[in-house]
Amino acid sequence: MTDAILHTRNRSADTPSFSNASIDARRIAATPRGVGIGFSIYAQHARNAELWDVEGRRYIDFGSGIAVLNVGHRHPRVLQAVEAQLENFMHTAYQVVPYESAVALAERLNRLAPGAHAKKTAFFTTGAEAVENAVKIARCATGRPGIVALGGGFHGRTFMGMALTGKVLPYKAGFGPFPGSVFHVPAPIPLHGVSVADSLRAIEHLFKADIDPRQVAAFILEPVQGEGGFHVAPPDFMRALRALCDQHGILLIADEIQTGFARTGKLFAMEHYDVLPDLMTVAKSLAGGMPLSGVIGRAELMDAPAPGGLGGTYAGNPLAIAAAHAVLDVIEEEQLCARAERLGLRLKQQLQSLREHVPQIADIRGHGAMVAVEFMQANGQPDPAFAKQVQQRAQAAGLLLLTCGTYGNVIRFLFPLTIEDGVLEEGLAILAQALRG
Ligand code: PMP
Asked: Where are the domains of the chain?
């Protein structure tokens, strides 16, 4: 065992023993650059919307570990649930010896997911794995190969995830070939010159030029594009997709991995629409920081794969399942859907008030507390340099912000929905400073 490892194991939890720079040098030597990092600070501990690095510096966390912490870092209810489960068992492999808590969570999600129809839920570990399995289920249930996704969409880093993702750099470059029978059409984003009619025409063209709609198993889309820039799918587009699905026997898959669990002011973003998906992928905030994902769908579709066709060694890990029950309890008890609306409005109000001082602000958008601000140059071109600058200024003042967007010119806000009002205001004040320069 090296000294460094011994040192790591022996150090007391609250005594900073490392500098960020020294760990960063070790990271660069020990881990590949392909696993890019957002900030060169190293976490020491965290609580709700605050995080402290190994040098004892405090940050307000407006990123929530990429939308995972809707109930904050280490919510006491989540900790309690995981600790209680630790006393019983950490792993049996659900497919070998199952447990009631997973069945109860499936029942709960089946009840909570939009639509009164019979549903079933299968658990996995990562978001990408949920996407992979939604595609497996859709193909198996329809007997068709084709999957249609949107430009700018993000669905994960596995091979099907990459194939479905509509952004080459950095996600796909150098990693092909990808699985076949995957097609992209432009997402309807009027700000970028693509109307709903343009997107629908592209689908019509796809069905004429590339694939018979009777060979398409599913459309997959995020109700609000996450990595792509927090673009909300227009309701008339969602309605038109549903109609095309019904016309051609195609399934509609809503990827709710980033939008789920109260983020948008509803438990699921599909509740903002008057049409239902056939399958939904969930992950991230489902288990408050424990790795857990799932596919929730129409019972008859979910039962298409034969026994053994779905699953995974860690799928539905019992600690993660316990955490997920606690997360759902917290969302309900602390009325986080309503709180997301309130916090999102406060944030939008702050951004609007800065508009006259910050000409780079081209758009402020989003549902609930899934809000983003997009920056353009005076000539109307995307301004990723300004987004980066705002992010760096905010970090220097103790606020962690995430960027996103096809052009990297968007800052997205994903603070915990449990954030204390005072901490939110503190973060908004730093944001204002960072935007004004
Ligand atoms: N789908 C969406 C909409 C996502 O936002 C993400 C993660 N950013 C994924 C899929 C992939 O999830 P994971 O990183 O857990 O594999």
From this structure: 3-67+335-436, 80-333
List all residues 6 or more positions away from 276 whose beta carbon is below 8 Å from its beta carbon: 114, 115, 117, 242, 252, 270
Question: Which CATH number does the domain 80-333 belong to among 3.40.640.10, 2.60.120.260, 3.40.50.620, 2.30.33.40?
Answer: 3.40.640.10
The stretches in the chain having pLDDT less than 50 are: 1-12
Question: Which residue's entry shows tokens 């992950």?
Answer: 283
Q: What pLDDT is attached to residue 10?
A: 41
Nearest CA to ligand 1 atom 13: 127
Q: Indicate if ligand 1 lies below 6 Å from the C-beta of 327.
A: no
Coil/strand/helix, residue 72: coil
pLDDT at 237: 98
Name which of 321, 426, 428, 328 is nearest 369 in CA terms. Answer: 428
Residue nearest to atom 12 of ligand 1 (CA): 127
- What is the atom index within ligand 1 of the atom nearest the CA of 157? 16
Question: Are 279 and 218 spatial neighbours (Cβ–Cβ below 8 Å)?
Answer: yes
Q: How far does residue 159's CA lie from ligand 1's centre (Å)?
A: 13
Return the SS3 of 109: helix
Structure tokens at 431: 């944001």
Q: Can you name the residues that pair with 375 across neighbouring β-strands?
A: 361
Q: What pLDDT score was predicted for residue 17? A: 77
Residue 434: predicted pLDDT: 98
Q: Is 3-67+335-436 a CATH 3.10.620.30 domain?
A: no
- Whether 414 lines ligand 1, by a CB cut-off of 6 Å, is no
H or E segment and range at residue 170 = none
Angle at 394 between CA 409 and CA 222, to 5 degrees: 40
CB 62 within 8 A of CB 400: yes
